[in-house]
Amino acid sequence: MNKAQLVDALTARLGDRRAATAAVDAMVEVIVDAVGRGETVTLTGFGVFEPRRRAPRTARNPRTGETVPVGETVVPSFRPGAAFKERVAASEAAAANATSAPRRTERAAAGNGRSTATRKTTPPETAGAPAAAAAPAKKAAAPKKAAASAKKPARRKAAAEK
Question: Hey, which residues does 79 pair with through a beta bridge?
């Protein structure tokens, strides 16, 4: 559901689209302003919006592989409430549309939970073998001028027949 769909759902309950739009905009603005000031917004039964501090870390530029220092930052966070979690867990529709996140044990087994997408390794069985042939080149696109000129006579014939 996006913002417009949320406004539509509220319009069905309130009966007035302007009031529904104003309510959604006001609520989002109040939450964003409060969390931006460092406050926590608690909506009982729904959840908690709060700022979270992320520690400084070292990241890696995926293009060059160079390490880049990333400073401490504050990000918005949402923790769902118990009633919200229970309702989603009991919903068959939510279960049908849910996606699975990778399990932490799988990420840890893949290499300390850190991405190594920029580093390519050669499998041990091919280390001494000659390099494989390069992948075949993509087919060249047909010249557009030829395609356009082929269509023009058909258009002219259709116009002449009218």
Answer: 48
